[in-house]
Amino acid sequence: xxxxxxxxxxxxxxxxxxxxxxxxxxxxxxxxxxxxxxxxxxxxxxxxxxxxxxxxxxxxxxxxxxxxxxxxxxxxxxxxxxxxxxxxxxxxxxxxxxxxxxxxxxxxxxxxxxxxxxxxxxxxxxxxxxxxxxxxxxxxxxxxxxxxxxxxxxxxxxxxxxxxxxxxxxxxxxxxxxxxxxxxxxxxxxxxxxxxxxxxxxxxxxxxxxxxxxxxxxxxxxxxxxxxxxxxxxxxxxxxxxxxxxxxx
Length: 249
Ligand code: ADE
Known about the structure:
This protein is of the alpha/beta class. 39% of the residues lie in helices and 29% in strands. It is built from seven helices and ten strands. Helix 1 packs parallel to helix 7. The two termini are 20 Å apart. The site of adenine has 14 residues, from strand 5, strand 9, strand 10 and helix 7.
């Protein structure tokens, strides 16, 4: 059974599709599912689209119709942990839906009927992704990006961490919103818009899930400028490089 590689950005998805050997494509529900191999690994590669509903619908199709055995999600994120810089990488430990709030019926952030606030990723895959990311950051980054891009984004000593990730249907671009997130969910290192939705569907279907996110911005007032620049010049190299280190070695 294939592993699903879901990307949050069309640029990352395009780079993966270009690198793979395609055996079959399925076009449905406004998505294109590419089936084939990446570094000899049987995969289905798809652009998730943005937001929790889009990502949940994509992963449900992958599980129910493409019979994937596992889901790996790649994308970018805004930094919440003050120690993280643009170009650092977060491998998700626990995923949270920061906009889930059914109080006073249940606790803030608890997923209705699931009874959980934190959605854990697969521990084994998380470790493999950490090793692959560290390997990519140590050498691959200088091989895959031009010197001026490395200097422009100060990608001189990027780090990889395993930490909590918060997801919600909001692009966060205010310091006050980041501070609020830190207070509500203290182990969260970064914020994005899909991971915890995919984590919930995978948990409900009992499919291993993991997520790797590159920091593209600081989720502050500059995020609207930093984010598109990073996507255009850097993001695709990261997901490709990390997955190559995961599968090809
Ligand atoms: N993905 C990348 N940056 C983000 C941000 N600041 N907020 C939400 N999702 C993001």
